[in-house]
Each structure stands twice: as structure tokens, then as C-alpha cells.
Amino acid sequence: MAGLGESALCYPFAMQVIINIPDEAAQQLATAGKDPARAALEALALESYREELLGESALREMLGFATRMQVHAFLKEHGVYLHYDVSDLEKDQSTAQRVRGKLPAHTEKHSA
Fold first, then answer.
1. Which DSSP state fits 21?
2. For 5-25, what is each residue's pLDDT tens digit?
3. DSSP string across 76-88
4. What angle, 0 to 180 degrees and rounded to 10, lies between the N-to-C axes of helices 36-50 and 68-77?
5. C-alpha to C-alpha distance for 32 and 83, rounded to whole angstroms
6. Boundaries of every domain in the chain
7. Residues 6 or more apart whose Cβ sits within 8 Å of residue 48
8. Could you tell me how many helices (H) and strands (E) the chain has, helices first?
9. Residues 99, 91: Cα–Cα separation, whole Å
10. 52-83 pLDDT, tens digit each
11. Which of 30, 46, 112 is nearest to 83 (CA)?
């Protein structure tokens, strides 16, 4: 049996989920220029990201975005902050230090 936070289900393919919404809600979404199916998918993706059930790469795949920048823009548009903590900062600092060590030495700047 799977523990808390673990899933016993693993699907080797994209799962199709069917939801029923009232016609009035679908009409309001359509009138606002939104595809009801896409709006539901985005709402699920956003809430799953907020609850830290999905990470950035899973969100990108779920919504069909090609780049992380598209994910970041989508999250910003919906007022959702990126998950970035101290361990992420430490990884970024370590990467920056490694990159700096591989860069050629800077030459002295000439003054005008």
C-alpha cells in the first residue's frame, strides 16, 4: 500500500478526465473567450502546483508549454509564485561558482 503522499497508480499514458459542469458555467467561460476544457485543465494545474503536488516540469508538460519561461509567465499571470527555497538558492550559487571558474580571466578595463 502506498504511504501518504505516494501514489499507487502510475499511468504510462496521458490520462483523460471527464468532468461535468453546468451549461451556464460553460457558457460564461465561452463568452469570456475561454475554452472550458482548457480553463479546467489550467485550474487543476495551478492548484496542483500551489499545493506542491506538481513541479515546474510536470506543469510544463501538462499544459503543453515548450519552455520554462512560458511556465513562469503563466504562473505570474495567475499570481502564483515559483517554488524557490534555500536549497534552490544554494544549488544556484554552486552552479554560478562552477561557471565562474570555467570563464576566461577578465582583462583589465581601459579607462577613457
1. -
2. 455 555 566 778 888 989 998
3. HHTT------HHH
4. 90
5. 30
6. 23-102
7. 54, 59
8. 5, 0
9. 12
10. 999 998 999 999 999 989 999 999 999 999 88
11. 46
